[in-house]
Amino acid sequence: MKKEDTVKLISAEGFEFVIDKEAAMVSQTIHNMLTSPGSFAERQHGEVTFPEISTTILEKICQYFYWHLQFASGKETEFPIEPELTLELMMAANYLHT
Amino acid sequence: MVPTKTTPKSSKTVDSMPPHTPNQTNEPSSLPTRRRSLRLASIPNSDPPQCDAGDDSAATATAVRVSNDPNSGPTGGAFSGKGRRKGRSDDSPTVTVKLDDSVKGFLNLRSGKKVLKRGMEASQDNAVTNGDPGSGSAKRGRKTRTQKSQEEEEEEEEEQICEADVDAVKIEKQNIAEGLEHFDSGNRGKRKLDGHAVNVEVGSTVAGARKLSREEKGKSVAHEAPLENGSGAKLHSEERNAVPVQVRARERSRNTNNNNNNGNQREHGSNRMERFRDIARENALRFAHFTAEEEENTNDNSVSEPEVEHEIEDWPGPFSTAMKIIRDREKKDFQTGCRPSERSLVESIKWVPKGNQALTSGKLLVPSSLQELCLKILARNVDNIASLDSVPDSLRHRLSQLLCDSGRITDHFLELLVGGSPTEIRLRNCSWLSEEQFTKCFQMCDTANLMVLQLDQCGRCLADYVIHTTLAQSRGHLPRLTSLSITGACRLSDIGLRALVSSAPALRSVNLSRCSLLTSSGIFHLAESLKPLLKELYLDECNGIDTELVLPALLELEHLEVLSVASVKTVNDDFVKNYVTARGHNLKELILHNCVNVTDASIKIIAEHCPGLCVLDLMHLEKLTDVSIGHLTNRCHALHTLKLCRNPFSDEVIAAFVETSGESLQELSLNSVKKVGYHTTLSLANHAKNLHTLDLSWCRNLTDNALGLIVDRCLSLISLNLFGCTQVTDVFLKGHSNMRLQIIGLQNSPLLQHVKVPDPHQGALNYSSVSMDCV
User: Fold this and answer.
1) CB contact, 8 Å: B761 with chain A?
2) Which residue intervals are annotated with compositional bias (Low complexity) in the record (chain B) (predicted)?
């Protein structure tokens, strides 16, 4: 993956997830951060920090991004979610508009 | 003669009988189930069996009641009388009332429904309890002994007639529908209901013999019905929407029918049919029922309409400009001298569906959002949620809505919602909630921060005494409550409302829809306490409130922005005039849905006095004419939502409205505005750029081309309702280019999608923001 095509998402504990920009754009919030004409710091460095989202949740969210892309391109599968994570995941998804 | 079963039951006093919840009548009979043919063989062709004239009072009660029937023809005709054939004779020498049942106060109909006898109805309004619908067919085994004898009696009468008809049945089977058409001419208004019901019943596939019997019954009823109230073949079975009125009609027909039964048993075949038809023709006029549509077609109306219309077109203003544009457009597009027909106009619309229909798989793959996935999982595991702390209100609302709609909501979830110090609690459906649970939850609830409380359909749990122990525990118990919705609180009286209002001094929005016990004095108190604050008031279907009496109270509410008096029967032009002239300048939303007495005069006043009106609901106001739309076009420039349904407006007038106001229009409903067609299509396509919700249900003049044009040109359109638009084909459905569009109401749309759901992000008030400072 070339650097220009990727984005780094950083969790509350400091874990860094490097994913495709296309995947990250599934989240409307991240999409706005990265494409808006203003100068978000995120845009310049290609990094977004989420101090409120824990690592496990952020990992799941990244998995969701890729699942979303696959589904839209024809591969219809189910996205598994562990029940324990659901509440936090929902709140994170709400924040990320995804 | 069939032995009569006379096990007398203890008579219940009418007053002590509580309203009934549906119950099943599954009591086994002590008699073996007998075949129809056997019974036929054992019954002589004579008078219906006598029964004991034991209880004189009951008998006379019913007899007296019964004797009034033949005189109440016209009113009877207005009801879609069920035409139950088994009548109680009023002037035959034998009293054929089944007295055990009359003593008990119930009649068990064949369908298993229990119906209060007419003598009892005077003192008790709700008379019908729904028995097991499945027992509609002659399953004798399900009836009790006492009931059975009555049923038997009835069946015998039927059979005697059926016996006569057996020969002619096959021919007449097909003629049932046509037979009913005979009465159509006389009974147009009712026909709509009746015809439909008959189709259901005739089409029902039950085992052969039963089908025959049903059709026989249907036919027989059809013949006899006009004799008392022209009800057609409204069978007693499978009718779930019985109403006391219909019960009375049914009883009445039962009583007068028996006369005919006695005479008819001896006649056979087509002679009878002829005789009935003649009688029907004679009596039809008495029972003819005018509908609004018919009224429209009378000459008087058609003469006055064009005159008035020309008047409003003549006055300078946006409406006349728009009408001119429309007429010119029509002339331009059609060079022929004569006015083109509506069909040819609409067919002339040119629209090109997108070419690659073959390529699209027909279904756009849209993955669910992560939030939706999570919500579904949470809904399935509600009881495992430990706490909703830190979950934002919008998510709580979405979860609550999902749970209420799918029936998965539990007491545990309510406890979660009231836990902590919640700011908003929304429950769209509280019918599952018991009083005890409600009391328990809301006694403990910390309401210091509660701003929005929605407890819809709370009739079961919300009564006056419950309010006193929970929401109105102390004065000012709900200090920050801005928005309160307690629809369906049918046990809430003025006193309870008073208590609520005194505990919520900051209320700005109150929804009291379907709180049927409230009267104008409750509203007076509301107005007194909340005079400067109240911005939104919903009084849908509060028929205990007399609009004349309540008007002064409403006038006191100085800042009211939203007023809904939907389905309140007493709303008329005077009310609208008086209210709107005084308070119209602040009004942003006015809902007159189903206030059928409203006419053009009201709309004129509204147009003149409500410059800021944003939302207007005129659904089911069938007395309005094109003039109303003219007034609205001229004056109401802020209107972004207009809801019409079954109004008799013409295509041109709607088009003129859209031409003028189209840019600001966001939501438009033209449900059953049948004349909509060419002009409206073009106006929408040209001007409705911000329209996001459109309802064109039942607008059958619109072809695929027309819809395609609308949908492709209205770039903001997200939701389109097309219920009843059977003329739409795949040419439109697969050929339009609007990717975001959701079409509701045709074959593949999920149910309930069209039900309007509140925005979970919506604040407490529709039009204002709430500031807590002025409390």
Assistant:
1) no
2) 1-13, 255-264
